[in-house]
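Structure ticket #2291
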Amino acid sequence: MAQDYDKIFREVLKDIFPAVARKVLGIPSGEYKPLPVDLQYTSEREADQLWEVVPSGGEPFILHCGFQAGNDKQMLSRMLLVDLRSFSCQTFLESSGSREVILAILADFEGEPAGLIAEKIISKLEELCEGKPELSQRTLQLVRLAVLRNLGKTVFNTAKKMTIMIDIKEDTLYREVYQEGRQEGKEKAALNMLRKGMTTDLISEITELPAGRIDQLRQQLEAGQ
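Resolution: structure written out below.
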C-alpha cells in the first residue's frame, strides 16, 4: 500500500515541488526546470523528482529527491532524510503561496483535530488563491495528499461543508467515488483503480467498499468479465 501512496505523492508533487524545496529543504527561490526521471543504469530506475535548480544567487545544480510514505531504514545511507511530520503545520499555514499551504496536511497537527486543520488550510487557500479555478485545483491536491494520512474523506467533506467546489471530472481517483454514494459509481471507480494496480486496502479506504467486494471485483476483472 505504501507504493500506492508514493505514486499519489509523486503526482501531486509535480506541481508543488519548487514550494517543497523552498519550505522543507531551505533552497532559496530561483528557477526550477524539471528533468527526465528515467535513469539509465544496468537495471533501469526512475527518480521521484529530478530538477535543474538555478538559485537567485549561486551556481546551478541538479536536485534529486525521493519520497516515501513510510520510514526506510536504508534511506540515511542513500540521501538526506527529511520527515515532513517533524514540521509544525503552522510552518506551512503561515506561507504566502498556495502550493506551500497544502503541505500542512502532512505536517504535525500538534494535537489539533484533523477536521480543524483541514478548515484552516482551506480558509488559507481561499485567502491566497486567485479565483475559483486555482482554489479548486489546490483543494483537490489537498484531498489527494490527505490520503497519505487516511484523511482524504475528512478533507473532502470539510471542503464540501465550506462550499468549496472541486472539479473532479477528470480525476480518475475521485470522479465516481463521491457521486452521492451510489454503489454503482463506487464499484466503477474501484475497477478503474484495480486496473491501475492499486491495493485492496487503499481502494477500500477511498471508495468505502468492503475489502471482500473489492476482491470479488478483482476476480471478475481477472476473469475478463
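Closing remark: Residues 2-82 form one domain.
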